[in-house]
Every structure is written in C-alpha cells, then in structure tokens.
Design goal:
Radius of gyration: 17 Å
Order of helices and strands: HHHHHHHHH
Strand content: under 5%
Low-confidence stretches: 147-160, 173-180
Number of strands: 0
C-alpha cells in the first residue's frame, strides 16, 4: 500500500510525529533514495526525542543530497542537542556556505555559542543572523514576483519554538538594560 506524502505532511502539520514515523519508514522501504523522506524521518525522530535515530536518518538524507541547508540545519541541531557543539557549528557553517542568507543556521550557531558560554561570539553570530534575514527579506520583496509574505521552507513552522527560545535567551543575555 503506497503511503501518501500528503498524509505525512498533514501529520507533521498536526505535530503527530510518532504517527508519521511508521509511514515514513514504509515509504522509504519503497523509495530508499528519497533524501527528503529521510530528512522528514530525521525530523520526526528528533521531535519525538530519539536523537540517535534522528542523526542516523539525517545522515542518510545528507548522503543522498548534501546541498540542502535545511537538512544541514536539522543535523546541526541534533548534534547540538547531543552536546557535540563543535560538530554542530561546523554543520551550521556548511549550511551558510550553501546559502549565506540562511538566517536559521546563523541563529542556531549563535544559540550553540551561547550554550558553550561564548557570549561575545553568540552576539556576533546573532547579528549575522539578523543581517542574513534582512538580506533574504529584501531580496524577496524586491524580486519580480515578490510574494505578499516571504517564502517559508517546507515545515518552517517546526523551527519556530527553537528559534523563539534562542531569541529569548539572546535578548535576556545581551540586551539587558537596553544595552548591547
């Protein structure tokens, strides 16, 4: 029985990752070379707390396609959550080599520096994230087919909680008393 990717996307939208995992596994049994399905499986594992399985699935996604910044971002976040900060920073840097305006990778790198206690490096990297975001939004707004709202990567909403937490910590750490 063929698994519908629309069904999997709906489960992600509803944050029912535990239900998406067996569907993704079944889909990958029939389509083992789909990097995007491996990426989604890695994300589902991460969101259910299984970092080892997440890392394994994301490694397979990267082995099939290492040119997608969101996959690198997801792999870096798993590395960060596992406490492998240097590996995470290198992975986020790879994402930013592919897309210098990928603010989520800068933001995640800054959050990693913060976890490492390197607050000055965190602040500098958060500033890179802000600059990248403005470049990206400006390019989208100025383009010939500028959308009403900026494009969002697939499952961009999955990063919202992570990004909000990182920015709350940043504001608390480096913007106290209205000063940088």
């Amino acid at each position: 029985l063929e698994v519908s990717m629309d069904e999997i996307h709906d489960l992600f939208h509803r944050r029912e990752y535990d239900r998406a995992i067996p569907l993704l596994q079944r889909h990958l049994g029939a389509h083992p070379k789909e990097w995007n399905a491996w990426y989604l499986l890695g994300q589902a594992y991460r969101f259910t707390g299984d970092l080892a399985q997440a890392e394994s699935a994301l490694a397979k996604a990267l082995a099939l396609n290492d040119q997608e910044p969101p996959v690198l971002l997801a792999a870096g976040i798993v590395q960060q959550l596992a406490g492998r900060f240097d590996a995470a920073l290198a992975t986020f840097a790879r994402a930013n080599v592919l897309n210098p305006d990928y603010h989520l990778a800068y933001n995640s790198a800054a959050f990693t520096y913060e976890k490492m206690g390197q607050l000055e490096q965190a602040q500098a990297t958060y500033e890179l994230a802000i600059q990248a975001l403005f470049r990206d939004l400006s390019r989208q707004a100025d383009g010939p087919e500028a959308p009403d709202v900026p494009d969002r990567e697939p499952f961009g909403e999955l990063w919202v909680d992570y990004t909000l937490e990182a920015n709350r910590r940043f504001l608390k750490t480096v913007m106290q008393d209205g000063k940088k």
